[in-house]
Every structure is written in C-alpha cells, then in structure tokens.
C-alpha cells in the first residue's frame, strides 16, 4: 500500500515499519494455522476494529492467501502462495524480532483442546 509524500516526510522509520492490517491478520492466522476464526474473533485477538479486519480478510481472499467458509476464515495451506507474498515474510520477521521465534510443537503441547469459555459462540 502506498502513502502520500507528506506522510513519508513526517513519519519515523519505526512508525513506517509497523505491520499493515492485512499483515497483522495474516500473521495471526499463520500463528493459528490449525484453526479457523470469525472476523470478530480475529479483531478481538489482535486488537483491531472488526470492519478493518473484515476488509483485510476480503483483500487477502482476493490474493488467495486465506480461505473462507460460512463465517469462518483460515490461512491457506498453499505454502508456495504464502511464500510469494512479501507481507507474510515481513510479518513473520517482525513478529520473530519482537517476540522471538516460536517452537510451535512446544506451544501445542500446552495449548487447550477447545477455545476458552469466554470466547463467544455464535
């Protein structure tokens, strides 16, 4: 996504490196690639507006990076497609830089089988 010249001039490098909404959504779905979520759940988990998340999901679907069934969304299992998306690589690198790399198998050993009771079912 492009930005106007004024924003380019007045914004710090750190601010410009922040992840876009689609990158944040894709990063969340990649970190939870064994589940599918409603847009509201994704928005709640990453702290963004549901409308922004819904728009991002539609754009990601247009690029075949996510799959949509009924009201649920999941990341594609097409790794070649994901590898070709520069935002995915950038999101992964920034998450790893901020939070450290993840040992997915170790995390899954301790993850609950079902969502927390506070997660609303619709």
From TrEMBL:
<protein>
    <submittedName>
        <fullName>MarR family transcriptional regulator</fullName>
    </submittedName>
</protein>
<dbReference type="GO" id="GO:0003700">
    <property type="term" value="F:DNA-binding transcription factor activity"/>
</dbReference>
<dbReference type="Pfam" id="PF12802">
    <property type="entry name" value="MarR_2"/>
</dbReference>
<feature type="compositionally biased region" description="Basic and acidic residues">
    <location>
        <begin position="100"/>
        <end position="122"/>
    </location>
</feature>
<dbReference type="InterPro" id="IPR036390">
    <property type="entry name" value="WH_DNA-bd_sf"/>
</dbReference>
<dbReference type="InterPro" id="IPR000835">
    <property type="entry name" value="HTH_MarR-typ"/>
</dbReference>
<feature type="region of interest" description="Disordered">
    <location>
        <begin position="99"/>
        <end position="122"/>
    </location>
</feature>
<feature type="domain" description="HTH marR-type">
    <location>
        <begin position="24"/>
        <end position="69"/>
    </location>
</feature>
<dbReference type="InterPro" id="IPR036388">
    <property type="entry name" value="WH-like_DNA-bd_sf"/>
</dbReference>
């Amino acid at each position: 996504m492009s930005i106007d010249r004024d924003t380019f001039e007045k914004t710090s490098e750190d601010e410009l490196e922040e992840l876009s909404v689609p990158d944040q959504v894709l990063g969340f779905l990649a970190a939870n690639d064994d589940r599918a979520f409603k847009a509201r759940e994704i928005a709640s988990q990453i702290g963004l507006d549901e409308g922004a998340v819904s728009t991002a999901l539609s754009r990601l679907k247009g690029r075949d990076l996510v799959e949509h069934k009924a009201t649920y969304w999941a990341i594609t299992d097409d790794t070649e497609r994901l590898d070709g998306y520069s935002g995915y690589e950038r999101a992964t690198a920034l998450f790893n830089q901020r939070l450290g790399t993840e040992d997915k198998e170790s995390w899954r050993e301790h993850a609950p089988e079902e969502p927390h009771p506070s997660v609303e079912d619709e």
